[in-house]
Specification:
By secondary structure, the protein is mainly β. Helix content is 0%, strand content 64%. The protein contains no helices and nine strands. The strands form two sheets. Strands 4, 5, 7, 8 and 9 form a five-stranded antiparallel sheet that branches. Strands 1-2-3-6 form a four-stranded antiparallel sheet, with no helix packed on it. Strand 2 and strand 3 (44-56) form a beta hairpin.
Length: 129
C-alpha cells in the first residue's frame, strides 16, 4: 500500500529520466529532458537533476521548462527556468522530507501557448529510496 506509512523496499539512490515534448501550434514547440537522481539521507531526500531544454517560440508568452516534485510527506514543489531555441542545460539540487515509504514523485513539463499560456506535463514518475 502506497500511503507513506510502510517502509521502503528500494535502493538508497535511484535515477530516472523525465521528458516532455509538446507544441506544434503556430510554430511553438517545447522539448524538456530531465535526468533526476534521488538519494535517501536519513528521513530526507536529496534531488539532483540535470535539465536539458529547447523551445521554439513564435508567438505567445515566453516559454519555460518545469520540474514538479515532492514526496509523500509534502505537497508538490516546482522549479522553473527559461527555455530558448538553443539547447540549454541547468543543474538543480533540492532536499525534502521523506515518509517511511521513501516515495518521491517527479514530472517534467513546459509552459507556453498562443495567448495566455498554460503548463503541459509529461508522465508522472515515482522513485522509492
Amino acid at each position: 500500500m502506497l500511503n507513506g506509512l510502510n517502509p521502503a523496499a528500494a535502493a538508497a539512490k535511484e535515477t530516472t529520466v523525465l521528458t516532455y515534448d509538446g507544441g506544434g501550434f503556430a510554430g511553438n514547440w517545447y522539448k524538456v529532458k530531465i535526468t533526476a537522481t534521488v538519494t535517501r539521507i536519513g528521513d530526507r531526500y536529496e534531488l539532483s537533476a540535470l535539465v536539458e531544454s529547447r523551445c521554439i517560440h513564435d508567438e505567445g508568452p515566453a516559454p519555460e521548462w518545469g520540474l514538479a516534485f515532492g514526496s509523500s510527506a509534502e505537497s508538490w514543489r516546482y522549479e522553473e527556468g527559461t527555455c530558448s531555441p538553443d539547447w540549454k542545460k541547468v543543474t538543480l539540487k533540492e532536499t525534502g522530507p521523506l515518509r517511511r515509504d521513501g516515495r518521491v514523485y517527479l514530472q517534467a513539463g513546459a509552459y507556453g501557448g498562443l495567448l495566455l499560456g498554460s503548463w503541459g506535463w509529461g508522465t508522472q514518475r515515482s522513485v522509492w529510496v
